[in-house]
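Notes from the 1:1 (GR / supervisor)

We went over the backlog. Supervisor wanted to see one worked example end to end before approving the batch request, so GR pasted a single chain during the call. The sequence is below; no edits were made to it. Supervisor asked that the structure be written out right there so they could see what the output format looks like.
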Amino acid sequence: MSLFLTWVEEKERFTLSTAGYVIFIALIILLLLLCSIVTQSKEKKQMSAKQLAFCGMSIALATVASVIKFSFPFTALTGGSITLLSMFFICFVGYLYGPKIGIMTAVAYGILQLIISPKIYFPMQILVDYVLAFGALGLSGFFYKRKGGLLTGYLVGVTGRWIFAAISGIIFFGEYAWDGWNVTLYSIVYNATYIVPEAIITVIIIALPPVRAQLKRVRDMA
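Structure output shown during the call:
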């Protein structure tokens, strides 16, 4: 137990205290401000109102999409669900604006997920599961100027989240490994059971010509 975390005995996990919620909401605001400062210093201009609006809209869409989910019985305790394209909406920001804004938005989304649906068993898990794993979705931004950057960026972002989720499983959830399974292999496969199906579904959807045309229009607007 600490100022920011409270151990809930009946759920056997940590949850955020009132002070914790306040701190993490403040962090979201701080991250957006930092994103604006970085953009200003490197590109000689502030993050525009339009960019902030698109980032906020993407976070909102991803949050709604994350509620529409399917979970396997064996993921009920430690988490992990197939959602309705929630990772795509965050990766899409990187495709629109590049890695700086993409990663900042992805980290902000991760912190928002921590606030909305915290599953904290160990304090350091916050860094790996919510900051690094979700933040990795912003890696999509490194491909925003390349041909086919939307698909490549999405796959790289999702793979980044998979890697950090697997690391979290190895460090924090090894005791849940299936009988006879090596902890590392278990974590890789376990996290693949929800990340890979969602990625396949998303790739199929964004490859459809009408969807591609609409996404191009959104990018032109952004």
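Supervisor's comment: The chain has a mean pLDDT of 83.
Batch request approved.
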